[in-house]
Amino acid sequence: MRVFYRFLFGVGLLLVLTVGTALVLSWAPDRSVEELSARWAPPPSEFVRIGGMRVHLRDEGPRKGTTPIVLLHGTSASLHTWDGWTEGLRDERRVIRFDLPGFGLTGPTPDGVYRVGRYVETVVALLDRLGVRRAILAGNSFGGQVAWQTALAHPQRVAALVLVDAAGYPMAPQEIPIGFRVARSKWLAPLMRVTLPRGFIDSSVRNVYGDPAKVTPELVDRYYELTLRAGNREALRERFVQAQAGPGAERIRELTQPTLILWGGRDRLIPPADGERFARDIAGSELVVFDDLGHVPHEEDPARTLAAVQAFLQRVGERR
After folding, report:
1. DSSP line for 5-44
2. CA dihedral 114, 96, 47, 296 (to 10 degrees)
3. Where are the domains of the chain?
4. In angstroms, what is the C-alpha Rg of the chain?
5. Which of 43, 83, 135, 185 is spaced 20 to 30 Å from 175 by Cα?
6. Is the CB of residue 76 less than 8 Å from the CB of residue 199?
7. Going edge to edge, which strands form the sheet with 286-290?
């Protein structure tokens, strides 16, 4: 019996040491905006005051001659996800992109509110702050949900929509990235406030790519470091609680703006069936599916996806 207890003690000690070592190796306290900005907010980045927040913004391209396009990123992403599109658009069109509240360098809201309606208010406040009367809204995933909700709430401000693997209908994922699963966990989310295994981020980013081989260490660095921005991890948990996909989906049929729907055929988070549903519900919309791309096709293959956007804007005559 004594040998048995010694065995249990040894197993328990080994377990404690293993867990302790894992916690030490994954220890990742919050980082300040100042610390992160040197790498992630060089010019043309700027910070503007909106709703009590310092919103991280990039506003590029000519101010006259075309309708501005506003790019809205998805959950746990940042304005950097649109680098490829911006490079291809900014010579001829004003391109505005910013870190949504709770993400990137913008960070958490002052009052902890992350309902979709609040994000819509932030988009409109940003347009007002920049003197933009009408804009094209392009959004990926959660950013796509914010885009179409803004178009419904303020139709006079939205000239056209580009929905990229957009959220909106009740979620039926084939697979959820581990980072999202942890953030949604009642038990694990508190632990993630002070720890963050880089492997979680690496796995999550690979999960949303059609070809995981395209994911570089530099790309993982970006997602990892911006997740560590002070307050972002708690904001992510609250965003999942407060702003779920599904409510209001019946109103998607009311959209009247010219709409392009882009989808990755290998999207396992929001499957292509949702893109087909958007296409059925939005009269006159166009659906383009990229069979080999995943949940973030604009980031995975910016040149090919942007070509579809530019052709769409020419067809609808959205130049001014």
Report:
1. HHHHHHHHHHHHHHHHHHHHHTB---B-HHHHHHHH--TT
2. 50
3. 33-316
4. 21
5. 83
6. no
7. 46-50, 53-60, 95-98, 69-72, 135-140, 158-164, 259-264, 286-290
Residue whose structure tokens are 């005559």: 317
277 has pLDDT over 80: yes
* Inter-residue long-range contacts of 81-84, CB under 8 Å, 24+ positions, other chains counted: 81/140, 81/296, 81/298, 81/299, 82/298, 82/299, 83/302, 84/298, 84/299, 84/302, 84/303, 84/306
Q: What is the pLDDT of residues 205-225, one digit of tens each?
A: 999 999 999 999 999 999 999
Distance (Å, rounded) from C-alpha 18 to C-alpha 143?
39
> Looking up tokens 């000690």, which residue turns up?
13
Domain 33-316 has CATH 3.40.50.1820: yes
Q: What pTM, to 2 d.p., does this model score? A: 0.89
Tens-digit pLDDT profile for residues 161-183: 999 999 999 988 888 878 777 77
Category of 287 on φ-ψ map: left (φ > 0), alpha (ψ -120 to 50) or beta = beta
Tokens found for residue 170: 């009740």
